[in-house]
Amino acid sequence: MTVATLAVGLSLALDLLVGELPEAVHPVAYFGRFVGRLDREWTNPRLVGTAAALVLPLLAAGVLAAPVWALARREPLAGAALAGVVLFASTSLRLLVSIVREVVAASETDLDGAREGLLALAGRDAASLSAGQVRSAAVESLAENLADGLVAALGAFALGAVVGAQWSPAAALALAAAAAAWTKAVNTMDSMLGYRSKPVGWAPAKLDDVVMWLPARASALALAVVALDPASLRRAKAWNPDVPSPNSGWPMGVAAAALDVRLEKPGVYDLNSSASLPSVADAERGVRLVAAAGLLSYVVAGVVAWS
Question: Residue ranges of the domains in the chain?
């Protein structure tokens, strides 16, 4: 087993056992506070946003990869452990699944509580959503975050390890950690700034569109594989023009097709409109589907890193 594959395995174990690092020591939380300082008026917001999008993710990658490189040169297993922690901090599966399960369960017994819980998943006004629409939003967010919150960083880590392995195990671990951290930083900047109401977020949003192009489609493929429903990819492609994002429609569309449910964001898109909004049972199947696709993604990343 290569040290990079060991790091992927450690990251999965930490996700299953721990779920999430405490905010006080979470590197993404520190990065987010730094990015938050950009959210103000600027004379030339696009220039500021472009400079930040180019510099800040590289800075985050360097800060986290440097100690991995230094430690791995002396002790490869210790370096693999640290790289695994970096990957763990750059990904999320168990926490996301847990939040969605809570929202889905509450949608049947405490709709107001479910609407409030949805705010942790989806950036939309939930005050007037029906129970079915709340479950729809939860499943949509779960599918979309499979790409943004897991597959993107896993894929970057695995590819970084393959490239770095041409030089040394230490280079493989350092480049893998850097790639995962850079990808997570790009997505974090988009999630915080990438709105039409924030001119400084134009460049982060565009960069995120490019970076997430492949992970979104890889996530859709993983969902189709675990659902044993290859036709869901074709159906998702047909619905994609209705989704403003160039990427999120893929995993959401496959989820809608594989679960045979309607997923809608009122006034924005309506996927599989001939079906019904998710029931509690449908949404729970969606949780299991995404969890299985996430585990498959870890396995694939580990195999790629090994090679």
Answer: 3-306
Distances (CA, A) of 52 to 59, 121, 265: 10, 25, 31
By percentage, how much of the chain surpasses pLDDT 90? 93
Q: How far apart are the first and last CA of the chain?
A: 10
Torsion of CA 282, 286, 292, 293, to 10 degrees: 140
Q: How far apart are CA 293 and CA 251, in angstroms?
A: 11
**Alpha-carbon separation of residue 220 from 46, 182, 193, 272, 305 (angstroms):** 32, 22, 25, 16, 21
The string of pLDDT tens digits covering residues 235-293 is 999 999 989 999 999 999 999 999 999 999 988 999 999 999 999 999 999 999 999 99
Q: Can you read off the two tokens belonging to residue 166?
A: 């041409």
Torsion from C-alpha of 135, 138, 140, 144, nearest 10 degrees: -170
Pair 208, 114: CB distance under 8 Å: no
Asked whether the beta carbons of 224 and 212 are under 8 A apart, the reply is: no
For the entire predicted model, the pTM comes to: 0.96
Is residue 269 helix, strand or coil? Answer: strand
What span, in angstroms and rounded, lies between the C-alpha atoms of 285 and 300? 22
CB neighbours of 280 closer than 8 A, spacing ≥ 6?
104, 105, 107, 108, 135
b/e per residue 183-206 (b: at least 16 CB within 10 A): bbbbbbbbbbbbeeebbbbbbbbe
Question: Which tokens go with 39?
Answer: 């959210």
Over residues 197-234, the pLDDT tens digits come to: 899 999 999 999 999 999 999 999 999 999 999 999 99
Maximal C-alpha separation, the chain: 60
Q: How many CB atoms lie within 10 A of CB 41?
A: 7
